[in-house]
Write a structure and sequence with these properties.
Pentatricopeptide repeat-containing protein, about 0% strand, PPR_rpt, THA8L-like
Length: about 260
């Protein structure tokens, strides 16, 4: 009887040792690192890689092209900024104590909302705040939105300031964005400034495209002299293409207003 008990104990001990050995073996098997796969935090490096590959003017990655929705905190901040805008000291204090602590998404959304409402003064205030943020990177869509908002409100002096900022930061517009900005200035009665930007477009290193020229030519219908200049450039760049010229009497009612600008 005693010998039987001893044998059972020995068998159990042997099985336990075998189980431990197998567990250790399998643990060692699945934790072996090959030279090609070092033991690293892969999620961290993927995130770093995605960030470093971003471009300041990339349409797919720019935060200024994403859908901007005001959250609860953004709505509160926007309301308070409007309330304080008539009091410069209070406004500056509120920006330092509250706006500077906003999340990036909320700050971007508040700025976009002010631009949509054509609140020039507050938009320019947040424009300066954004450019001081640690996450800020020069972006052509950021500047495009500012310039188009200023064009809608005929703020030429402010346009000049923003333009100097983007030149200093070496922001480059692509041909389609140039066309959209120039058209915005034309549609809002600022042909002189529109032609200044057109000259910048002609100096761009990007190859010219026909569609932006057509967008500009359509916006230049009330301004025949400027339109002839752009038309000549278009035919020189794209000799095989045709431009539709509207009847001359279309401009008779627009001559007086077309040559002047309301600043």
């Amino acid at each position: 009887m005693a010998s039987t008990v001893i044998e059972v104990v020995m068998i159990r001990s042997a099985l336990k040792q075998t189980s431990c050995c197998c567990s250790s073996f399998y643990r060692a098997l699945f934790t072996i690192q090959t030279p090609l796969e070092p033991q690293i935090n892969r999620r961290f490096y993927i995130s770093r890689g995605a960030g470093s590959a971003s471009s300041s003017s990339s349409p797919s990655l720019s935060i200024w092209r994403r859908k901007k929705e005001l959250g609860k905190e953004g709505l509160i901040i926007a309301k308070e900024l409007k309330r304080h805008q008539a009091h410069p000291v209070r406004l500056d204090r509120f920006i330092k104590t509250h706006v500077s602590r906003l999340l990036k998404s909320d700050l971007v959304a508040v700025l976009a909302e002010f631009q949509r409402q054509d609140l020039v003064f507050l938009s320019l205030k947040l424009y300066e705040v954004v450019r001081k943020e640690i996450w800020y990177r020069p972006d052509m869509f950021f500047y495009r939105d500012m310039l188009m908002m200023l064009a809608r409100n005929k703020k030429v002096d402010e346009v000049n300031i923003v333009w100097e900022d983007l030149k200093r930061e070496e922001v480059h517009f692509d041909q389609h964005t140039f066309g959209d900005i120039i058209r915005a200035f034309l549609d809002n009665g600022l042909p002189s400034k529109a032609m200044d930007i057109y000259d910048e477009m002609r100096q761009s290193p990007d190859p010219p495209l026909s569609l932006p020229f057509r967008v500009i030519l359509k916006g230049l219908l009330p301004y025949p002299e400027s339109r002839e200049k752009v038309k000549d450039d278009f035919l020189e760049l794209f000799p095989g293409m045709i431009i539709y010229d509207p009847p001359e009497d279309l401009f008779e009612d627009q001559e007086s207003s077309g040559e002047s600008e309301d600043y």
